[in-house]
């Protein structure tokens, strides 16, 4: 039996559309701030756009720069070794500077260390793309 499409009210569609653009903005900021992930925010934006505006979703997926983040993740085509190395290096430098200069609390330093280890494991486990 086929499920019928659920109709979404215009107010909810606007909420998803605004949320999508907010998530794109956060994702773009994440390109420049190493501790803020980019891909997950762009994937969430794509989901919001799917629920609100197929046109906005097509814009995001076909965007010259941002679309690559979504495609690489969804297609599981991977990251280049150089990209992994740069990401991991910037991650550890940023985490180290934050842990040493911005806090004296041991629990915050331990949390930052756990985040760095988790993200490093995630990046290492992503398929390495052959160039």
Name its key features.
6 helices, globular, mainly alpha
Task: Map the helices and strands.
Elements: H1 10-32, H2 39-52, H3 54-62, H4 66-74, H5 81-101, H6 106-125
Can you offer a commentary on this structure?
With 131 residues, this protein is mainly alpha-helical. Helix content is 73%, strand content 0%. Helix 1 packs antiparallel against helix 2 (39-52), helix 2 runs antiparallel to helix 3 (54-62) and helix 5 (81-101) packs antiparallel against helix 6 (106-125).
Please give the oligomerization state of what you see.
single chain
Structural class of the secondary elements?
A: mainly alpha
Work out the helix count: 6
Q: What is the radius of gyration computed over CA atoms, rounded to a whole number of angstroms?
A: 18 Å
Outline: globular
Number of β-strand runs: 0
Poorly predicted sequence stretches spanning 5 or more consecutive residues: 1-5
The proportion of residues in beta strands is: under 5%
Question: What's the N-to-C terminus distance?
Answer: 46 Å
- Summed over residues and divided by their number, the pLDDT gives a mean of 86
Quick summary:
With 131 residues, the protein is mainly α.
